[in-house]
Model the fold of this input.
Amino acid sequence: MAQSMWLAPLTSSAAWTAQAQSSCSAASVFATLVAAIVTKGIATAQQKAKQTKDIVKGPYDFIVIGGGSSGCVAASRLSEVSSWKVLLLEAGAEEPNYGMVPAFYNRYLTGPFYDWQYKTQKSGWDAGGSTGRGKILGGCSAVNALHFTRGNAGDFDHWSSLGNTGWSYKDVLPYFKKSENNLNPAIASDTQYHGKGGPQDVELDRYIDPNTQLLMKAYEEAGIASINDVNGAKQIGVSRAPSSASHGERFSTNRAFLTPAVRRRPNLTVQTGATVRRIILSSGAGKPRAVAVEYDGPQGRKTVKLNKAAVLSAGSFNSPQILMLSGIGPKSHLNDVGIKPVVDLPGVGQRLHDHMFAKGNVKFLLGKTANLGTQQQIIATISQYVQKRTGPLTATGNPANVFFRSKFQKADDPRPDIQIPLGGSQYLTTTGVKGCASPEAAGTYFNQLGFNAINLHPKSRGHILLNKANPYGMPLIYHNVFGDESDLKPIYEAFRLAVKLNSTKVFRDNNITLSYNKPKQCTQLTFNSDEFWKCTFQGAGSANQHPTSTCSMGPDSDKLAVVTPRLAVRGVEGIRVMDASVMPGTTSGNTNAVCVMIGEVGSDFIKQDYNVKTG
Done:
């Protein structure tokens, strides 16, 4: 198990204990201490980034663009072939040690150094705002909430039904298993669905607070089945969440697939601080071919030649942007922004698909079980993690989920259409001491549980465009949240389920009550009606930061398909795409595990095309 050396001061400093006992709260001290350590850590990382040297020495057989959830997998798997020279280009920096603490995911891995900080445009219910994507080796797997849900078998059978040969659940299940090293014996023993010995450690959140357990029981009482393994035979029901974690620490694809042994391979080069501008295409007769990649690196702009293929793994925002900057995309749009079209591929940047939710401000107020935490409890929480890697700091706030089918889901579609994440730590309002608050330290201490319902398969689709003022800058992202307002209907049903919980014995026995926002303009509407919930949402909707489908796969008959079912970009030789952008649509849950699978499948496609044995 990797050691988080930065945590040492918490166990070795007598001053820490004395200060904790004499200050307004232990949580306040912890927050101050962590902030200081993290600030120093970022400064050190920034200094190292400035000292990063360009070690690229081409040409390379394969250039992987983007060291994220899929890109780390691709670089690792392709470099298994010792005769192939592989380069991985990542715009961000190396992954920091302090990022291994799961509870810190939404606190200290944000900001421009580790996050692209994209801005969305006003569209549908999206008022425009920031949306995060990991700018770091490991990509979103290094900064996300660690959920490692595969989705539903029906997701992949649906992909296959669209003409994507090789992507049915039967086809992809071996790849989910191939990458997995499941650390929970009861789950790992189900070898039909799980793997043991793969690079990617997976475990259930090591901590689930008592109030979330009560909420799970309430859902069961309300008619939602309990399931033990959301990545097994059944997904629909209430269950604990699997995480990309190893013994209580984050285990990103960087740590899983780019181990020190892999990084020492003589045929693999990993270059951080390298922002790719475009793929250079041949200008001769016949189909254009990728011949080089241009990037801005630590020592300035550079072009590196490639022999076989560029592998785009830059994510659902950057992959279509790089294609368009390379002259591959909708001809009219490229002309409009001053990019010379080389391949007219109208689907590039189209079909943006994400999970969507509305902000209804519904909460479950805790009575008997509310606990804002004493100094001693918070100190114990910290010690527990430092010494044993257990307790609240091993969780990210949503240790369980409900997946269910609303009445609006088609009868012949087996997939759930609603996800309800369960947990309360992110809804902590106070540590109980005026002026002191530290959600990181007090992850198990709160006085309310939040409610949120996510539409997993909305009809609404968005798109991505280059910015005419600066094509090489941030792309224009239009999520079109609830552009089709029928996407709200399953969410209304989910909110009615929340109201139903108020009548359960679990809630009555524990004095848990439902609280909801009721704006003045909604007071005349019938409570719990569609009109009531829509009014309380007040047009406040958002995508769930699981963007997909902007370079979607499809058969020849699909005129908006960007890549073939084998992930080769149409109309050009020597470019593959391996990331969430190739999905024809969202999956039934968080997308990180699916991105790992795509990296595995795509790497095998390449090996097969070059007659390299796979398995």
Notes: Residues 149 and 590 are 6 Å apart (CA to CA).
